[in-house]
Write a structure and sequence with these properties.
- Helices cover 42% and strands 7% of the residues.
- It is mainly alpha-helical.
- The protein has one domain: Orthogonal Bundle (Arc Repressor Mutant, subunit A), CATH 1.10.10.
- The protein has a two-stranded antiparallel ribbon.
- Helix 1 crosses helix 2.
- The longest helix is centred in the first third of the chain and has 12 residues.
- The radius of gyration is 20 Å and the shape is elongated.
């Protein structure tokens, strides 16, 4: 899933207003999410879509994914800056 797709899915899940900007990438994400059973079209949401139980599970998975912490490059070297073997 691309960052744009994640943004669209989170928007549909959490915000009941149309997604802006509307674009070909947005249309592709909507089509993919619909085909894969993550969202469905509805008139009861300002965005025109709601997430399914599967879509909700994907959002929860994204929210529960821990952030990775980049390795500290100083710990990869010795005290004086030489590489550890």
């Amino acid at each position: 899933m691309t960052p744009h797709e994640i943004n669209v899915l989170l928007h549909i899940h959490a915000i009941a207003e149309p997604f802006k900007p509307d674009s070909p990438a947005y249309e592709e994400a909507i089509e993919s999410f619909t085909i894969n059973g993550m969202i469905y079209k509805t008139d009861s949401s300002g965005s025109g879509y709601k997430t399914t139980k599967f879509g909700d599970a994907m959002v929860n998975m994204l929210c529960e994914t821990p952030l990775t912490v980049p390795a500290d490059p100083r710990k990869q070297r010795g005290v004086e800056g030489e590489n550890k073997e």
